Amino acid sequence: MITHSHIRGGIGLALASLLALSCAACGSTDDAAADALDRVDASSALSSTDAGTTSLSDTRSTTTTTTGPEITHRTVRVRRAIAFRTRTVKDASRDEGTRAVVTRGTNGVQELVYRVRVVDGVTTTRTLIRKVTVKKPVTRVVAVGTRSASSCDPNYSGCVPIASDVDCAGGSGNGPAYLDTAVRIIGVDIYDLDRDGDGWGCEDE
Q: Which of 60-64, 125-129, 188-192 has the lowest mean pLDDT?
């Protein structure tokens, strides 16, 4: 393949030849002709060096930076409620079948920390890093009564049965319930057991 250096070298040699002939015709010395040839050689060498630099430039790869998707990473914290639990306890001081809340339940708070990857504004992945309990929930406590319902009238000290009517045993009353022991009146004598008004009913005469 003929390169620029070959062409320039050939032109230089042709000029040197013409210059040498011209110098010979005009009676120039051999030193002048030699000097002309030296300049032609130097010019040819410079041409060869230039050709090598161009070759390296032609084979060097060029990297083009292409703008890709915008990728960002974020740390996101999310808080959520921790539901409280309910616990029941037996309470002998309460009547059977009754219920009462003795401790009010409250929800707790939990914080979740995520590592989020966002590509062009769209979340592509979300990885849970850790969980932190900010506030613990409080358990609700419900008391359930276990005490049997009383079958005695609360207006009397001593058990007077609860009935449509109660009379003293051995008296003239017709019941249907009878009482064979003395009782003290602490409320209202609904059965009229205290006939003498001393605060006692069905006492011995």
A: 60-64
Which CATH number is correct for 71-147, 3.40.50.720, 3.90.960.10, 2.20.230.10, 3.40.309.10? 2.20.230.10
List C-alpha distances in Å: 29 to 20, 23, 186: 10, 7, 161
Write down the domain spans for the chain: 4-55, 71-147, 150-205
Residue with tokens 């059977």: 96
Residue type, 135: K
Torsion-angle region of 197 (φ positive above 0: left; ψ -120 to 50: alpha; else: beta): left
Question: In the predicted model, what is the mean pLDDT of residues 120-137?
Answer: 95
- Contact at 8 Å (CB) between 169 and 179? yes
Q: Is 113 helix (H, G, I), strand (E, B) or coil?
A: strand
13-66 pLDDT per residue, tens: 455 555 444 444 444 444 554 554 455 444 444 444 443 333 333 333 333 335
How far is it, in rounded angstroms, from Cα 109 to Cα 181?
A: 63
